[in-house]
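Chapter summary example.
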Amino acid sequence: MTTVIAIGTKKGLWLATSQDRKTYTLSEPHFLNLEVPSVAIDTRGPTPRILAGVNDWHWGPTVVHSDDLGATWSEPEHGAITFPEDTGAALARVWHLHPDTADRPGVVWAGCEPISVWKSTDGGEGFELNRGLWDHPHRPEWGEGFGGAAAHTIVPNPLDDQTVHIAMSTGGVYRTRDGGSTWEAKNRGISAGFLPGEEPEFGQCVHRITADAANPERLYAQNHGGVYRTDDGGDRWTDIGNGLPADFGFTFLAHPRTADTAWTLPLRADYQRIPPGGRLSLYRTTDAGTTWTEQHTGLPENEFNVVLRDAADIDLAREDGTAGLYFGTRGGEVYASNDEGESFLQVADRLPDVLSVRAASLG
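The structure predicted for these 363 residues follows.
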């Protein structure tokens, strides 16, 4: 079995491959000197498809794809994501690419800047703007996070194709129950200390959300200050940050098969944005956030770089269903674990700033 890690950086895309998940071979860079803020590996077809959101400084941002592990790349003549003329908008960045479930072949989601959600039904070759979100009455009041105005996370419900959760900076969590025709803000319980009022309906700067393996109505959120869980699809969120060394961060990963198991990577808030004490660690919960355990073996001390929101992934790395964890830092280091975080090894170092990481086991 071959493990492939797609690594999008500030200056290109690298592919790391391994046959034993112990030693990795790093490719030559693709799209050298172009920003690659989002990547995805779609394993649902007869051959794996790698998708990349690329910011071309001359031609503009687009989504490209490869069906031969990077040997060749393709994109539609007029671009994969193009705003309708009546919107008066232009694509600024593709923040997030997410292939849907195996029983929805061809469906790929994209979260973009300006804040918007897009859906493809042909494997990512062409995307359609979700007008329900674009025309939402809250949209004029959504703001920009530190990195920009981003719809950065899309979580389709695997049991109900009409339900999708998204997260944006800034705006918070929104949910549709009718396939995207209408959307509701679902932020009750999530803090927004920079806004007036204790519990605003929307405007939170949620950094990441992910769904539990056993119950898609149970989601976890890493906020701009605060770690949360909901058990009712976002109707109410509760704080689960007790036991973590910090409640700021960007990443959150849920185990793809094991219930109540998830990981986050804490950072010191707010403007420092470094691992607490320079100790880069993941923290795992196996009881839906009641308790947390540090996982640090193989990770460096005196590490002051950030792991960004799309720069971490989880994959069923072994035949026995054991999950692999993968992440990259703004210092250009990439780490992998094939034992659910019990130990890590370094896949790459001294790359440009890592913006996006996705991994898949093939064959």
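To summarize the output: The two ends are 5 Å apart (CA to CA).
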